[in-house]
Structures are given as structure tokens and as C-alpha cells.
Amino acid sequence: LEEVGKGGFATVYRTKYLYKSRNFQKEVALKLLHTSNNEEFIKE
């Protein structure tokens, strides 16, 4: 898991997803949203 970006609303990570067969993997991005009740955040 590698952090690739961070902003006011979220942090983005890069990692590899291993399919059940374990014979195939794919690079994916995960976006972790920060907790917020901000109206601007909700609209996004």
C-alpha cells in the first residue's frame, strides 16, 4: 500500500489486487474519504 495523494477530503493509495486464483493481479487505486459533515463534501 503506497500513498499517492492527499487532499482536504480524501487520501488515495496505490496497491495490487490479487484475484482469487492468485494467478492474476491488477494495480488499483483506493480512495479513503475523511470524515466530514461539510456541505461542500456531501455535494462532491
UniProtKB/TrEMBL annotation:
Gene3D superfamilies named among the record's database cross-references: Phosphorylase Kinase, domain 1 (3.30.200.20)
Keyword Nucleotide-binding: yes
One GO molecular-function entry: protein kinase activity
Binding positions (ATP): K31
Domain Protein kinase residue range list: 1-44
InterPro entries xref list: Kinase-like_dom_sf (IPR011009), Prot_kinase_dom (IPR000719), Protein_kinase_ATP_BS (IPR017441)
Keywords from the named record: ATP-binding, Nucleotide-binding
Protein name (database record): 35_t:CDS:1
